[in-house]
């Protein structure tokens, strides 16, 4: 069964550094998402992406964050200047359509900012 | 931000017991209710997506119901097995491209 893959599984970075989290969504899916979970808290929506542009973003997704689908298969999340509070598990997800369609999640990237 | 609540936070049951847990959400602007099963070190796996008041869905020993008027959904597991041990997440979709998740119910089935 096709699955969403994320790399790396764990990323450690110093505060102020840029990180890029990578995802390969399921090939026939049209909607792509990033979510994150800070330890002990709820899974939070960051951004959704459709037709090569952001369709929705949360308050968390400020100017330090960006997403890109550079080559038709990868979907990346970039954090320009990481902060301690960016430490979290970041999940990529994809779906066939946006409404009434389950999300398929990757295994996540655990980002640790020191 | 939508406040989605799940209860209980954690639950221990004996193998063979049936169990259920609750997800509550604001009933205004509701579009869909999702349930996911999340095993440790794996990705959340979709169980059900429900949209209509009174919806009932079933997958094997797991079933779910939806009441959009009062803003709750129940997940039932019949005859729990150790492999059912996981965190069960519900998420509410309000018509936009995002989901608001609850904190999850962590189920442990004791052999």
Q: Kindly, what is the distance between the CA atoms of the first and last residues of chain B, rounded to a whole number of angstroms?
A: 39 Å
Residue share in helices of chain A? under 10%
Largest interface, and how many residues on either side? Answer: A-B, 27 and 25 residues
DSSP helical segment count of chain B: 0
**Biggest sheet of chain B, open or closed, and with what strands and sense?**
6 strands, mixed
Task: Count every helix of chain A, treating DSSP H or I runs of 4 or more residues as helices.
Answer: 0
Q: Which residues of chain B form runs of ≥5 with pLDDT under 50?
A: none
**How much of the residues of chain A is beta strand, in percent?**
over 45%
What is the 3D form of chain B? globular
Radius of gyration of chain A: 13 Å
Number of strands of chain A: 11
Order of helices and strands of chain B: EEEEEEEEEEE
How far the N terminus sits from the C terminus of chain A, by CA atoms, comes to 37 Å
Portion of residues within helices of chain B: under 10%
Overall pLDDT of chain B, averaged? Answer: 94
Instruction: Please tell me what the overall shape of chain A is.
Output: globular
Short description:
The complex is a heterodimer of chains A (114) and B (111). Chain A is mostly beta strands and 114 residues long. Chain A contains no helices and eleven strands.
Could you please describe the fold and organization of this structure?
The complex is a heterodimer of chains A (114) and B (111). By secondary structure, chain A is mostly beta strands. Chain A contains no helices and 11 strands. In chain A, strands 2, 4, 5, 6, 9, 10 and 11 form a 7-stranded mixed beta sheet that branches. Chain B is built from no helices and 11 strands. Chain B is an all-beta fold and 111 residues long. The chains are: A mainly beta (114), B mainly beta (111). Chains A and B meet through strand 4, strand 5 and strand 10 of A and strand 4, strand 5, strand 9 and strand 10 of B.
